[in-house]
Design brief:
CATH architecture of the largest domain in chain A: 3-Layer(aba) Sandwich
Distance between the termini of chain C: 53 Å
Mean pLDDT of chain A: 88
CATH architecture of chain C: Up-down Bundle
Number of strands of chain C: 0
CATH class of the largest domain in chain A: Alpha Beta
Number of domains of chain A: 3
Number of helices of chain C: 5
Radius of gyration of chain A: 22 Å
Shape of chain A: globular
Structural class of chain C: mainly alpha
Order of helices and strands of chain C: HHHHH
Distance between the termini of chain A: 58 Å
Order of helices and strands of chain A: HHHEHHEHEHEEHHEEHEEHEHHHHHH
Oligomer: heterotrimer
Number of domains of chain C: 1
Helix content of chain A: 40-55%
Number of strands of chain A: 10
Number of helices of chain A: 17
Low-confidence stretches of chain A: 417-424
CATH topology of chain C: Four Helix Bundle (Hemerythrin (Met), subunit A)
Strand content of chain C: under 5%
CATH superfamily of the largest domain in chain A: NADH-ubiquinone oxidoreductase 51kDa subunit
Shape of chain C: extended
Largest interface: A-C, 49 and 31 residues
Mean pLDDT of chain C: 81
CATH class of chain C: Mainly Alpha
Chain lengths: ~425, ~100, ~230
């Protein structure tokens, strides 16, 4: 039984090995006060933890009204390179995630559950395989659980790309005109939920909505698992109460508590200035600043780093990770990366580059099939805004110390082949 | 013979995955489509009244003339203006087979 | 079957055949102009496309005349069956068969274009690539069936058309515009685009020993029912 008001919730009873089914049932003994799962889920106000923050109960209600052979897909792909929360969760307690998936399946009437983990991470794959095997050995009646391992790409975690991979073996985002659009595998509707969201559903199903709402804020209840990277001794994953000031989160993670800026939401998110770190970490406090919790990523940029050089590195990688199906994304993102490089190099070209950046952001936004270009545009706009002083220095020909040093703080995977970049 | 008066509004939608930047739409419907620097169409998501015969016929020509069939003229039932920033049109009415 | 004995049918066959060849040469060249995005200043790109579409209709009509007059003519006994099924003609079996194969391919291209709004764009593009093959086969058919193609203006005609289309093909390949790597159909000869190999993020530990899987571990789970695709 997990007490209310107490952390950790998702990581309760965690050891350095994954919890077995018996241990999991020992730690998370249900409270027997949950009668109607769907009512509890709506009352809890759980928002998705995969990045979009869409209310889970609304998704479930939409899927309930569909006809056909339904599936539940657990998205453990973790496309963001700066995030490891889903991997950590699946390595610590995969049974909680699977419990939540089974509850979602019972709510919408699905017959199969597909758990998707990137195949580049053999440890996590093995842990999830063992967990599924344990449940199968127990002969629990319920929807069959399959493990799928798509290759790791940034867009592979996007829900339409993931469902398309399950359907047709290609991780390509699909064009979905009009809202709401139901994703399908074959003809069957699909409910896609992040692994952490499923784990939270598992907790709500055991302890109820009131227990769930004892943590967090009114509009953004519960706890969230946060990956902290950047200026930190060891990139860490911690579970925090929504509404905690960000400075407190950095302090408990052992990160630099007076950074230059903090990137929230991942590489498609936006920067929070160093002087605004007392903002509570929840969507209702962050949305007036046009930020959001997103996928629970906090990347810390220290004072000695160069914000715009880091931004260039990130945008270059994001341009490489484009699925290159849509022209504005395939050509526009490399153009943004080039413009950022010109700004980093400084000089008179840089001034024109900044103007071009602003114009191109307006042109690229909203014209892709998925939200990848929108995320990059948001990141670029925020970088140009927050690091405006830095840019001025670069343009005047006096680049900052961070640009001259080779040390970089944001985790960006290196590009395999330079010739894969589309504008070469 | 009189002119057929149409009621309602339409919006020209492009499937960005199918679009290959041929640019025929900008020639056939210049009042609705502009090209960006890479040759891909920029189409406003504001619904246009079908009573605007010129635009409507241009849109239909563009839909037929696109070499990749990436365009679709979608009829819109509620002529409410778009208030949010993202270029997503309101849910269109007819999603069945396109007819010339 | 109806068989007429007037020599004018034979003349008509030859004439419509030659005109069809010339028209298809122009159609293929126009197709390469459309694909390489020619136009915008003096003529619109959509106009090149429209001329390509309209002229191909005219060419098909001439081709149909050519076939009808051949079948009706009793001077050469090709028979109605050989219009669609190759190697069934008694007169010049292989050359007429080549014409039949070419006509079958052109028929596929034509029908898929008529139903362009109903077939997927990928399917239409895949079939459309076969128009090059149809043209090449029809050139061989013209050279072998034609009675004057071994000397003088006949040879000039065949060689000229072949040269023009070969040049157009080379220009089509060399002058192709940079595209976003779309998911539309590829030529039957091309290999599918290979996405770049994914790279592990730097934060993931590497070179972990592969855990030992127990012998009674269950096999790969079955594909979910109703899903398409290879796995």
């Amino acid at each position: 039984m997990i007490e209310p008001h107490v952390l950790p919730r998702l990581f309760a009873g965690a050891t350095n090995r994954p919890l077995s089914l018996a241990d999991h049932e020992e730690v998370f003994r249900p409270a027997d006060n949950v009668t109607n799962l769907l009512d509890e889920l709506s009352a809890s106000g759980l928002l998705g933890r995969g990045g979009a923050g869409f209310p889970t109960s609304r998704k479930v209600e939409l899927l309930r009204n569909q006809r056909g052979h339904k599936y539940v897909v657990v998205n453990g792909m973790e496309g963001e390179p700066a995030a490891h929360k889903d991997f950590r969760l699946l390595s610590t307690n995969p049974h909680l995630v699977l419990d939540g998936a089974e509850m979602l399946a019972s709510m919408i009437g699905a017959s199969r559950i597909a758990v998707c983990v990137a195949r580049d991470n053999p440890t996590v794959v093995h842990h999830v395989e063992q967990a599924i095997h344990e449940r199968a050995r127990r002969n629990l009646r319920g929807p069959g659980i399959d493990l799928h391992t798509p290759p790791w790409r940034y867009v592979a975690g996007e829900e339409s790309a993931l469902v398309h991979w399950l359907d047709d073996n290609e991780s390509l985002p699909q064009y979905r005109p009009g809202r709401p659009h139901i994703l399908r595998i074959g003809r069957g509707p699909v409910l896609v939920d992040n692994a952490e969201t499923c784990a939270n559903v598992g907790l709500i199903g055991r302890y109820g909505a009131q227990w769930f709402r004892t943590l967090g804020t009114n509009d953004h209840p519960g706890s969230v698992v946060v990956s902290v990277t950047g200026a930190i001794t060891r990139p860490s994953v911690l579970e925090v109460n929504l509404g905690t000031p960000i400075r407190a989160i950095l302090a408990s993670a052992g990160a630099d508590t007076s950074p230059q800026a903090v990137l929230l939401g991942g590489y498609g998110g936006a920067w929070l200035r160093g002087d605004q770190l007392d903002t509570p970490y929840s969507n209702d406090s962050l949305s007036p600043l046009s930020l959001s919790v997103g996928a629970g990523i906090i990347a810390v940029l220290p004072r000695q780093a160069c914000g715009i050089a880091e931004a260039h590195r990130v945008v270059r990688w994001m341009a490489h990770e484009s699925a290159r199906q849509c022209g504005p994304c395939a050509f526009g993102l490399p153009a943004l990366a080039e413009d950022l490089l010109t700004v980093v190099r400084g000089g008179r070209d840089g001034v024109a580059a900044v103007a071009r950046l602003r114009e191109r952001c307006g042109v690229i936004e909203g014209r892709g099939a998925c939200r990848h270009p929108d995320g990059v545009v948001r990141f670029v706009r925020s970088s140009v805004d927050v690091f405006a002083a830095d840019i001025d220095n670069h343009l005047r020909g006096a680049p900052c110390a961070g640009a001259r040093s080779q040390q970089r703080f944001l985790t960006v995977p290196s590009l395999e082949h330079e010739e894969d970049l589309i504008w070469e | 013979m009189g002119v057929i008066r149409r009621a309602g509004m339409f919006v020209l939608q492009v499937n960005p995955i199918l679009c290959d930047g041929f640019g025929h739409c900008a020639e056939l419907a210049p009042e609705l489509v502009h090209l960006d620097e890479w040759g891909y169409p920029i189409i406003s998501s504001e619904p246009v009244p079908m009573a605007d015969i010129g635009s409507y016929e241009s849109a239909r020509y563009a839909e037929r003339g696109c070499p990749r069939q990436a365009l679709h003229v979608a009829k819109v039932n509620n002529p409410a203006p778009i208030t949010n920033v993202t270029m997503r049109p309101p849910t269109p009415v007819s999603r069945g087979r396109r007819r010339l | 079957m109806i068989a007429l004995t007037t020599p004018y049918l034979w003349y008509a066959t030859r004439a419509t055949g030659i005109v069809a060849l010339l028209l298809f040469t122009v159609v293929v060249c126009l197709g390469t102009l459309v694909a390489n995005r020619v136009g915008g200043t003096f003529i619109g790109r959509f106009e090149v496309n429209e001329v390509h579409r309209s002229l191909s209709m005219v060419a098909v009509v001439f081709l149909l005349f050519h076939i009808v007059t051949t079948v009706l003519d009793s001077f050469v006994s090709t028979g109605l069956v050989s219009t669609l099924i190759p190697m069934t003609s008694t007169y010049k079996r292989v050359p007429v068969a080549l014409g039949t194969v070419s006509f079958d391919l052109i028929l596929a291209v034509w029908i898929s274009s008529l139903l362009k709004l109903r077939v997927k764009n990928q399917t239409w593009r895949f079939i459309h690539w076969f128009s090059w093959l149809a043209y090449a086969i029809s050139l061989v058919h013209v050279y072998l069936t034609g009675t004057d193609t071994h000397k003088g203006i006949g040879t000039l005609l065949v060689v000229g058309c072949a040269g023009v289309v070969a040049l157009a093909g080379v220009w089509r390949y060399l002058g192709r515009p940079t595209r976003a790597a779309g998911r539309t159909a590829l030529s039957p000869l091309a290999s599918p685009p290979v996405p770049p190999r994914p790279r592990l993020p730097d934060s993931v530990p590497r070179n972990l020993p592969r855990p030992r899987v127990p012998d009674d571990f269950p096999k790969t789970p079955p594909r979910p029912p109703g899903s398409r695709g290879r796995r």
